[in-house]
């Protein structure tokens, strides 16, 4: 299989017997997460069965190359198709394990590899671009047409229209990260739900820089273990109309970044170097806080936090009447874990 062209991506996010491995990679970690979620939902049919989705880390496969094939060929307790998500990070190769699986593909499982940016000559990318049983899907910052699609999808769901001026203004405020963009558009739709249409003033109020800075403040307080500050800012955001899912999506993006950043840190890179190379760039006032987060969180704790956040998102969807409460409780727990890490050595 070759690199999937943008116009064909939706087709490759649907499971097909001939394509058992999908590599979803790129600098836009929000778009990577969204496409992984779509692929998994298409495989499982949005099943609530916890046995239909398996989550692995690439270092687990590097330690035990047979683990991936064992999971892929395992027969689920209640039958049905399964999705295996592998979060790829660090420098340990897993291409040989993936290649072995492609040579003996499973019958009822699909594997999605979620990775950050990969060089053209990266072994895993080369394997998935060339093997007929795999697909490589790149995720880069949204262009204008992609943003329009996100905007139109959310407007249609909310049964709203938007003026040309408001759309142009919205384009200038979103786009660096797919999950962040979608969350901001959803927030805008909630704000304008009773108006029937969205104008430029709505965009200025609902998707302004002030709300983004407040969310960043909450994320940094949580990741550094200041539970009291997080609770204060989170309550302020909810009272101002920012949905809890916007905050938890930002926390997930931050911990995805921390997972990759910590791998580089453990390999010898300095926190300053890592933050300076971050894409999208870290706002300069946040850089010292983000550097401390990288040094504070060990990879295994980051992985556990991400799994906890994933569970909270799912629970919030099924308990929509109290989503903000569910999200707040889950995030406070992560802040408490961060507080317990302070003062310890993490390298």
Question: In this structure, how is the largest beta sheet organized?
Answer: 5 strands, parallel
Could you give the count of β-strands?
7
H/I helix tally: 17
Order of the strands making up the biggest sheet: 2-3-4-1-5
Q: How many structural units, i.e. domains?
A: 3
Question: What is the overall pLDDT average?
Answer: 87
CATH class of the largest domain: Alpha Beta
Class computed from helices, strands and strand pairing:
alpha/beta
Which percent range fits the helix content?
A: 55-70%
- Poorly predicted regions: none
In CATH, what is the homologous superfamily of the largest domain? Answer: P-loop containing nucleotide triphosphate hydrolases
- Percent strand equals 5-15%
Q: What is the CA-CA span between the terminal residues?
A: 40 Å
Query: Per CATH, what is the topology of the largest domain?
Result: Rossmann fold
CATH architecture of the largest domain: 3-Layer(aba) Sandwich
Overall 3D shape: globular
Computed Rg = 20 Å
Task: Describe the overall structure.
- It is a single chain.
- This protein is an alpha/beta fold and 347 residues long.
- The chain folds into three domains: 6-138, Rossmann fold (3-Layer(aba) Sandwich); 149-207, Orthogonal Bundle (Helicase, Ruva Protein, domain 3); 210-341, Up-down Bundle (Zinc Finger, Delta Prime, domain 3).
- 59% of the residues lie in helices and 9% in strands.
- The strands form two sheets. The protein has a five-stranded parallel beta sheet, with helices on both faces. The chain has a two-stranded parallel ribbon with strand order 6-7.
- α5 links the parallel β3 (82-87) and β4 (109-114).
- α7 (144-158) runs parallel beside α9 and α13 runs antiparallel to α16 (299-318).
- The chain is globular, with a radius of gyration of 20 Å.
- The model has no long low-confidence stretch (mean pLDDT 87).
């Amino acid at each position: 299989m070759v690199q999937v062209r943008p116009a064909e991506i939706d087709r490759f996010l649907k499971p097909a017997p001939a394509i058992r491995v999908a590599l979803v990679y790129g600098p836009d970690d929000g778009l990577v997460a969204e496409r992984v979620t779509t692929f998994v939902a298409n495989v499982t049919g949005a099943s609530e069965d916890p046995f239909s989705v398996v989550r692995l880390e690439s270092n687990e496969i590097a330690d035990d190359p047979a683990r991936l094939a064992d999971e892929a060929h395992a027969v689920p307790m209640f039958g049905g198709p399964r999705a295996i998500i592998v979060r790829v990070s660090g420098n340990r190769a897993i291409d040989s394990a993936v290649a072995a699986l492609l040579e003996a593909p499973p019958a009822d499982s699909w594997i999605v590899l979620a990775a950050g940016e990969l060089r053209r000559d990266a072994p895993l990318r080369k394997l998935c671009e060339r093997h007929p049983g795999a697909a490589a899907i790149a995720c880069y910052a949204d262009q204008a047409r992609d943003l329009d699609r996100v905007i139109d999808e959310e407007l249609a769901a909310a049964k709203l229209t938007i003026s040309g001026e408001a759309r142009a203004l919205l384009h200038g405020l979103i786009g660096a990260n797919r999950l962040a963009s979608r969350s901001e558009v959803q927030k805008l739709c909630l704000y304008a739900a009773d108006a029937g249409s969205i104008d430029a003033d709505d965009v200025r109020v609902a998707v302004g820089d002030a709300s983004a800075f407040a969310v960043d403040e909450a994320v940094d307080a949580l990741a550094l273990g200041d539970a009291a500050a997080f609770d204060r800012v989170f309550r302020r955001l909810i009272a101002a109309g920012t949905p809890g899912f916007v905050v938890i999506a930002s926390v997930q993006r931050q911990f995805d970044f921390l997972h990759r950043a910590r791998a580089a840190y453990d390999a010898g890179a300095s926190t300053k170097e890592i933050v300076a190379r971050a894409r999208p760039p870290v706002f300069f006032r946040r850089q010292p806080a983000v550097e401390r987060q990288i040094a504070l969180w060990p990879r295994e704790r980051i992985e556990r936090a991400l799994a906890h956040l994933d569970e909270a998102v799912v629970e919030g969807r099924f308990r929509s009447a109290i989503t903000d409460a569910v999200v707040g409780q889950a995030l406070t727990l992560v802040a408490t874990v961060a507080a317990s890490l302070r003062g310890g050595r993490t390298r």
